[in-house]
């Protein structure tokens, strides 16, 4: 089971670290964070941006066992060669615990606020696909091999890199791709993804079916990939406590797809998601200062949804 942090007002590193360490102590497998420079409400002047990968580098040294990653990073934020090096560096810093979640980028106002180009949809998908080709190409090219790794695309070009970044994990850190796109997202995921994420949808089974067809179209076994989904949660031992935690979810879309209720309600919903095909569920948390929420989920939900390891 994995925890995804989505801070409502941004956060200082110490806040993120406290949540990550609580996640680790509570027994969760992984701690992921979003990659945003603005909150969902672009007019929220209390939002405090932090860089996703800088934060994850800190967590790589300040946590011990929990896996770390982005869900998902924006391909529009960083050049692919630089991103490949960043992730490889954090993979080494964490002892092989990092995962790369990457998407096209979608939040136009966020890009404008930070002076970042925001191409039209087709170009963003083109760039995204080229980025993945560059990143995986660099990660899997042996050091010193002639002629090295080269790539010639419409948007990115790499020339004879004989000293590419090395990752601890082999062949490279897991790559998570997801989203609601009906064609190109599943097609790109079929080529590059270790894990396909259905994103926030009421019908993850339909998204998984689209991904399976995309895999079959290129001769890949869909069973090779993990299938994941996102579940916003507001859990409480009483209805009042659950509703109080649910008030942090400002988006009606998120609330409509959330489970707001008792630990047993969360367990039941996770069971439904597994029946729909998900083998991995990210619990989407919004109030990062509510560490008791994480502790409750770890104590009252996790034991009922995680299969004990066989000795």
Detailed description of the structure:
This protein is of the alpha/beta class. The chain has a domain of 157 residues. The chain is 41% helix and 18% strand. The chain contains twelve helices and twelve strands. The strands form two sheets. An eight-stranded parallel barrel has the order 1-2-3-5-8-9-10-12, surrounded by eight helices. Strands 6-7 form a two-stranded antiparallel ribbon. β9, α7 and β10 form a beta-alpha-beta unit. The longest helix has 20 residues. The protein is globular, with a radius of gyration of 19 Å.
How many beta-strand segments? 12
Largest pleated sheet? 8 strands, parallel, barrel
Poorly predicted parts: none
Q: List SSEs in N-to-C order.
A: EHEHEEHEHHEEEHEHEHHEHEHH
* Overall shape: globular
Strand order, biggest sheet?
1-2-3-5-8-9-10-12
Helix content: 40-55%
Q: In what range is the share of β-strand residues? A: 15-25%
The assigned structural class equals alpha/beta
For the residues shown, what is the average pLDDT?
Answer: 93
Distance between the termini: 19 Å
Helix tally equals 12
What is the rounded Rg? Answer: 19 Å
Pfam family, one: Bac_luciferase
Protein name: TIGR03560 family F420-dependent LLM class oxidoreductase
Keywords: Flavoprotein, FMN, Monooxygenase, Oxidoreductase
Domain Luciferase-like: 7-245
